[in-house]
Amino acid sequence: MTLYKQEALELIQALGGGYMEKSFDLVVHFSDFGQPLITDRVLGCRIKSEEDSHQEGSDALVTKFDLSVIAVIKGGIDPISNLSL
Q1: Which residues have C-beta within 8 Å of that of residue 8, sequence separation ≥ 6?
Q2: 29: domain range?
C-alpha cells in the first residue's frame, strides 16, 4: 500500500505506539472509467515493513507499506465460506 507521507503519518498516529503490531481493516472503492464503483474490504491488515521515498523533484513524498492481510472480500463476495472476522 502506498500513501502520501502525510496520510502515512496520520495512519501511524491513529494506530499509536506499537503500530506494526496492530491490525486494522481497509475499505477500498475503485472503478475504471465508465464502469460501476466496486468496493473491496481488506481484513486483518498489519504493517510488516515500511519505506519512505527520499527523492528530489516535484513528485510528492510517499511511504510504501508492506502489509500482511488475512482476507480480501472482493465486491462483497467472501473468499472463504462462513468467514467470520
Answers
A1: 50, 62, 63, 65
A2: 2-74
Q: Has residue 85 been placed in a domain?
A: no
Has residue 42 been placed in a domain?
yes
Q: What is the pLDDT of residues 26-79, one digit of tens each?
A: 999 999 999 999 999 999 999 999 999 877 778 889 999 999 999 999 988 888
Pairwise CA distance, residues 14 & 8, whole Å: 10
Local confidence band at 85 (pLDDT 50, 70, 90 cut-offs): low
**What's the structural domain count of the chain?**
1
Q: Is residue 83 part of a domain?
A: no
